[in-house]
């Protein structure tokens, strides 16, 4: 005997990694995507994988495609929403499922349109094994339209200046999170969700991983401009009260200006009796400008009030129509 601990017969603990994969009208992408994902993850036979697809109320044959996947691959879990709730909520549901059942040691969130390359997620796993608790993919290049790039740039510029936390630029929701982080994120229940902000807010050891984002394989983006503006608003309203403070600053500035104006009018009156201060044009413009500013500021208050209202209603974040998960895997099926 050389004194080493007897390990024969002891099964090493296999680490489990779950993928959370939101799906909205991706019928032509799912099979190709899953093949690419399985191809990439097969390099890590030492890990247990689960692929949680969340069907976000797709109107095409996405669900049928997912069911086909599941027939061939029992590691595929399907979560079906009762309707379309949006990408952020779909990801949340996937995280909830994994966090609620303690089914993974780490979770990777990625899109199912092949814009996020599956091989990059393997690099994330390596970083996680080296000690990182969040590994977010940062775009070195992006193949989006010039318009999308410009709007994204403007949004992060504003957010940087307003938000109380630092939200990394050129980072989407493609990231790996340790189970501890997922458990924390699952406790954030705001209805207007901006997940990348929540993850930044949670903290832990976060690392960036540079990658080149690909073009969407098939189908079209589910993020038209209207949704993008709403999403940007969630980011700003959810992580900053700066716009509210701006209202009083603006009020002070306008008051100071009007005081100067009053001094000017008084001065003209007292010291230049032959002059008259020009009248109605200035009044008219001033009136319209000020009511414009006031309405916009009311809108800012209204946006916050709207969030308060939605939170006060406290409706469930989403409703599940169906969950198909493999009980044989020992992961259990939630009610
Ligand atoms: N998605 C979703 N619900 C939606 C819109 C999109 O689950 O209401 C999914 C979509 O299937 C994809 C990911 O979210 O996997 C990103 O969506 P998309 O590619 O449309 O956004 P983009 O890459 O253009 O920002
Ligand atoms: Mg996409």
UniProtKB/TrEMBL annotation:
The keyword Membrane applies. One of its GO terms (cellular component) is plasma membrane. InterPro entries: Glyco_trans_2-like, Glycosyltransferase_2, Nucleotide-diphossugar_trans. Residues 20-182 form the Glycosyltransferase 2-like domain. GO terms for molecular function: glycosyltransferase activity. Coiled coil: none annotated. SUPFAM superfamilies: Nucleotide-diphospho-sugar transferases. Its main location: membrane. The chain crosses the membrane at residues 250-268, 280-305. The keyword Transmembrane applies. It is a multi-pass membrane protein. Keywords: Glycosyltransferase, Membrane, Transferase, Transmembrane, Transmembrane helix. It is found in: Membrane. Belongs to the glycosyltransferase 2 family. This is Glycosyltransferase family 2 protein. It comes from Nocardioides faecalis.
């Amino acid at each position: 005997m050389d004194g080493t601990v007897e390990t024969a017969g002891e099964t090493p603990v296999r680490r489990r990694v779950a993928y959370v994969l939101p799906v909205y009208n991706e019928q032509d992408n799912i099979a190709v995507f899953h093949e690419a994902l399985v191809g990439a993850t097969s390099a890590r036979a030492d890990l247990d994988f689960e692929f949680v697809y969340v069907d976000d109320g797709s109107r095409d044959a996405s669900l049928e495609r997912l069911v086909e996947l599941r027939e061939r691959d029992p590691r595929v879990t399907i979560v079906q929403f009762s309707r379309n709730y949006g990408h952020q909520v779909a990801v949340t549901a996937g995280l909830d499922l994994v966090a609620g059942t303690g089914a993974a040691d780490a979770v990777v969130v990625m899109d199912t349109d092949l814009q996020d390359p599956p091989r990059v997620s393997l690099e994330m796993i390596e970083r996680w094994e080296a000690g990182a608790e969040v590994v977010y993919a940062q775009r070195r290049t992006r193949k989006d339209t010039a318009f999308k790039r410009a709007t994204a740039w403007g949004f992060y510029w504003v957010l940087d200046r307003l938000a109380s936390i630092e939200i990394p630029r050129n980072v989407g929701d493609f990231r790996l999170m340790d189970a501890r982080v997922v458990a924390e994120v699952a406790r954030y229940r705001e209805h207007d969700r901006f997940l990348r902000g929540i993850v930044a807010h949670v903290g832990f050891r976060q690392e960036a991983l540079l990658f080149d984002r690909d073009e969407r394989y098939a189908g079209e983006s589910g993020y038209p401009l209207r949704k993008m503006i709403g999403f940007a608003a969630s980011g700003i309203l959810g992580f900053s009260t700066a716009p509210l403070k701006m209202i009083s600053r603006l009020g002070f500035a306008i008051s100071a200006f009007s005081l100067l104006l009053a001094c000017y009018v008084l001065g003209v009156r007292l010291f230049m009796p032959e002059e008259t201060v020009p009248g109605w044009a200035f009044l008219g413009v001033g009136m319209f400008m000020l009511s414009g500013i006031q309405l916009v500021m009311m809108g800012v208050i209204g946006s916050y009030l709207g969030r308060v209202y939605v939170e006060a209603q406290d409706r469930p974040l989403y409703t599940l129509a169906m969950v198909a998960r493999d009980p044989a895997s020992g992961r259990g099926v939630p009610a």
